[in-house]
Prior knowledge:
- By secondary structure, the chain is an alpha/beta fold.
- The protein has 2 domains: 7-115 and 303-332, Quinone Oxidoreductase, Chain A, domain 1 (Alpha-Beta Complex); 131-273, Rossmann fold (3-Layer(aba) Sandwich), CATH 3.40.50.
- The protein has helices at 49-56, 121-141, 158-169, 181-189, 206-213, 231-237, 274-277, 281-296, 313-321, and strands at residues 7-13, 22-29, 37-47, 70-78, 92-96, 104-108, 112-114, 149-152, 173-178, 194-197, 219-224, 238-246, 268-270, 304-309, 328-332.
- It binds NADPH dihydro-nicotinamide-adenine-dinucleotide phosphate.
- Keywords: NADP, Oxidoreductase.
Amino acid sequence: MSTIPKTQRAIVVEKTGGPEVLEYRTDHPVPEPKAGEVLVKNTVAGINYIDTYFRTGLYPSPKPEVLGREAVGTIVALGPDTEKFDFKVGDRVIWISNHGYAEYTAVLADKTIKLPDGIPAEDATASFLSGLTVLSLAKETYEVKKGDWVLLHAAAGGAGFLMTQLLKHLGAHVIGTAGGPEKVKLVKELGADHVIDYRSEEGKNWQKIVMDITGGKGVDVVYDSVGKDTWEGSLAVVKKKGMVVWFGNSSGPVPPLPLNLLSPKCVKVARPQLFGYISTREELQAYSDELFGLLLSGTLKVLVHKLYPLESIQEAHVDLESRKTMGKLLIKL
Ligand code: NDP
């Protein structure tokens, strides 16, 4: 059995700011698991756009902070009051919580799930937070039905890559947007019916293109994680009685909007967050089981943009925020 060191490698953010505030440390204390927690030795951690919000302060959080909301690893110690979870030292698990940019994380057993043998660590991390998100968006926020017309922004991204596949699996007609020819090619290969390069000269007019594709009706639902740059267009291309789901701020937040903008078309809007849909253990386990099933059956494929060493975390955040990446960014620990 491996001994647990007193200190570890971790990325610490002392104050909000750009990627330069991500400090690589080699002497960060290894936490003791408290009541209800397990200590996980992480092998692969996920990098998500939300990490940039905590880094910049768009989403306030106490500092100093170790960012990172998910990882795969092995349980190396059990805190008090964890008996009911049926975990043991050596279990291979995946968790969703906080402080994943580190070799060891003390995480609530409640937010930790046993990982089925057939799913490699990289596939699991590349699809966990992102995959649970897209499942909840397509099942609960708006229940996607066969034949629905769906507009999905940033369709080549970590969440978008999985969402495109899920939407096709559910039988929707998918219009994806993506920045640049390489991303467009990828989203087409995933089966999207139409893909618009919204950064190209022609694609800047994506609203007209969407209306033309749908015969002037508009789409049943828009999934918009881009926010500031796209929210108006998303409202413009949703059909009468349709829904716009704003679930991210990649270009900045959607500004407060007058509710009467929704009246002419009786549009519904939603601003969901994953952690609302998986707040209980039962919800987390049920969504995880569904995701694992989709991975094991080959229905959902993952794409890893790059595995970054922990010390290259600044480079990873620069890449993510400069729209250079396709699929998911991971940290190899
Ligand atoms: P992505 O891999 O999708 O990266 C963000 C993408 O957004 C970029 O690649 C880029 O794609 C697009 N983008 C558009 N405008 C900008 C801009 N100005 N700056 C940077 N990127 C831009 O990240 P994730 O998969 O981690 O997350 C996707 C989105 O989903 C994020 O907004 C995130 O906050 C949200 N999210 C929300 C959750 C929730 O619970 N509500 C949970 C998980 C994710 P392109 O070049 O194609 O435009």
